[in-house]
Amino acid sequence: MARVGNTSIPSGARSEFGKTATVIAVGCLIGVLFAGSTIATPLYVIYKHQFGFSQITLTLIYAVYIVGNLTALLVFGRMSDEVGRRRTAVIAIGIAVAGAVVFLLAHGVASLYVARVLSGLAIGIGAGTGTAWLAELIAEQDRSRATVIATIANFTGLGLGALVAGLLAEYVALPLRTPFNAISWCWWLSRPSSPSRARPWIGRWLRSRSCRSGRVPAFRRRSGRASWRPR
To answer: With 0-12 CB in 10 A as exposed, 13-18 as middle and 19+ as buried, what is 84?
Structure first.
């Protein structure tokens, strides 16, 4: 039994709300990773005009993405089991950021190939890690729920990535820069942080929700701040 101010918090409630916060964070992680895979889609028209490549080259740029996916599946498929979910997720985000940097600095078709491979690699590692993470968190309740959450995050990210990138490219300056800067910022926000630096908005949302429903918010307390502890 822990106390927050004058309120006693059962340890079971702490566990429940800490798990909910982690599920939300992992779902967001999956979503923004998949958003990064489609953020370049509306920009290929600009790249094609700038670099002057053919339609078949554009098709190959799309197709080379699978190279990164297969590499993640065949080579790094069990990495999160060995080094931990959080560390593997951070690695996936790092690879995704590297791909965005290559897009930002692209000066030819070769750069687009490299960026797409890195994007596919990041998605392959991150999506597998996130889905396994969700399965561990929800396994005791309903195994199918983890798949549903991962699928919703997947398709939401795919749709929003292309939509937001298209809007930014159309109405904001620097169409080949702004979308990647925006998605890199989202990746940074979604990174699995240490417990003492966990995203406070999750805690505030859960706290307000629990107060409305009459339930006690459950968070670990460290230096007076709420935190969640992913694996």
So the answer is: middle
Question: What is the band of 78 on the pLDDT scale with cuts at 50, 70, 90?
Answer: confident
Written as six digits, the tokens of 73 are 């599946």
Q: What structural domains and CATH numbers belong to the chain?
A: 18-218 (1.20.1250.20)
Q: Does the CA dihedral 52-57-62-68 come out positive or negative?
A: negative
Q: Can you tell me whether residue 60 is helix, strand or coil?
A: helix
Q: Cβ distance 34 to 93 under 8 Å?
A: no
| 215/9 Cα distance (integer angstroms) | 10
Q: What is the pTM of this model?
A: 0.75
- By the 10 Å C-beta count (0-12 exposed, 13-18 middle, 19+ buried), 124 is classed as buried
Range 169-178, long-range pairs (CB < 8 A, 24+ positions):
169/42, 169/43, 169/46, 175/43, 175/46, 176/43, 176/46, 176/47, 176/50, 176/103, 176/104, 176/106, 177/104
Distance CA 76, CA 185 (A): 25
